[in-house]
Write a structure and sequence with these properties.
By secondary structure, the protein is an alpha/beta fold. The chain has one domain: P-loop containing nucleotide triphosphate hydrolases (Rossmann fold, 3-Layer(aba) Sandwich). The strands form three sheets. A six-stranded mixed sheet has the order 7-8-9-3-10-11, sandwiched between helices. Strands 1, 2, 4, 5 and 6 form a five-stranded antiparallel sheet that branches. A two-stranded antiparallel sheet has the order 12-13. A hairpin with a 2-residue loop joins strand 10 and strand 11. The longest helix is centred in the C-terminal third of the chain and has 18 residues.
Length: about 300
């Protein structure tokens, strides 16, 4: 156990019931670490296990999931040994998760202020309504929402995508969580609003020394915003590297993902097509890159 780490994941396995009473693995032996104040990006295609890894850490998987690990620790505490009630308290007070789309994550029949008060009541039982209202406005101010009172009185459908995303960040970041999982927080936003949301997250990490797990499909964004990057394929971490060295990554899967978003200044004549190798699912795999231009013969 490393006392300087905020969380440690070693050989995390997540499986779901499949046909014929067989377990279908979705996360296959993921090992990751996160230090306080660090921004760890997790990238990969849809279905690679990124979100499941974050949800397993927070204990937010459905009851049907089977979760096991050699180590699953937060701040030195064994998460697998905790009761469900202890995990819920931990998520409400020290750990949080920002989901992908505020349209589906915020309750459409409750005002923003009421939803945020509900979150505060769970974290701080016995707090007076007036104090909760003040905390709601302070939390909205902290994520650079100008007219906090108007937003608090609004329903989610009355907010833009960027405003809704900032409301979700305010709800999760109000207590200054030590660990935050942000699952595609900018995927539905335009470039300008995305940069504003990233500024809010960056400010929160700096003020609270929060460890951030940033899940995304956008490799250039993760390379610019995060400190380290873990690349997932078929439920495994196939490569980790410093974010600044992402363009020099060696695994053919990472190289293929990078090639799928070429620089606009000098675009290739043809986008490369990924040639998948079944051996990539082997945790001990080491091999050479395998990219093929679209339209070329195999």
């Amino acid at each position: 156990m490393n006392a300087s780490l905020l969380c440690e994941i070693d050989q995390l396995q997540v499986a779901f019931p499949g046909p014929d009473r067989q377990w279908a693995p979705a996360v296959r032996g993921v090992s990751l670490t996160l230090a306080p104040g660090e921004r760890l990006g997790i990238v990969g295609e849809s279905g690679s296990g990124k979100s499941l890894t974050g949800r397993a850490l927070l204990g937010q998987l459905p009851p049907s999931a089977r979760v096991s690990a050699h180590t699953l620790r937060y701040a030195g505490r064994d998460l697998l040994a905790m009761s469900a009630a202890e995990r819920r308290r931990l998520c409400g007070q020290e750990m949080g998760m920002i989901l992908q789309d505020p349209k589906y994550s915020l309750n459409p029949v409750m005002t923003v202020g009421r939803q945020m008060r509900e979150a505060w009541a769970l974290r701080n039982p016995g707090m007076k309504r007036r104090d909760m209202d003040e905390q709601v406005l302070a939390s909205l101010d902290a994520v650079h929402i100008r007219d906090a009172r108007r937003v608090a009185a609004s329903y989610p459908h009355e907010l833009s995508g960027g405003m809704g995303q900032r409301v979700m960040i305010a709800m999760m970041a109000a207590n200054g969580p030590r660990l935050l999982v942000a699952d595609e927080p900018t995927s539905a936003l335009d470039v300008l609003v995305s940069m504003q949301v990233l500024d809010v997250l960056d400010d929160m990490v700096a003020r609270h020394n929060t460890g951030l797990i940033f899940i995304s499909h956008d490799l250039p964004l993760v390379g610019a915003f995060c400190d380290r990057v873990a690349v997932m394929y078929a439920g495994r971490v196939v490569e980790t590297c410093a974010a600044g060295a992402l363009r020099q990554a060696q695994h053919p899967y990472t190289r293929a993902l990078l090639a799928a978003s070429p620089a606009l200044a000098d675009p290739p004549e043809r986008l490369p097509v990924m040639e998948r190798d079944p051996a990539w699912c082997d945790p001990g795999w080491r091999g050479a890159a395998s990219l093929q231009a679209a339209g070329d013969a195999p």
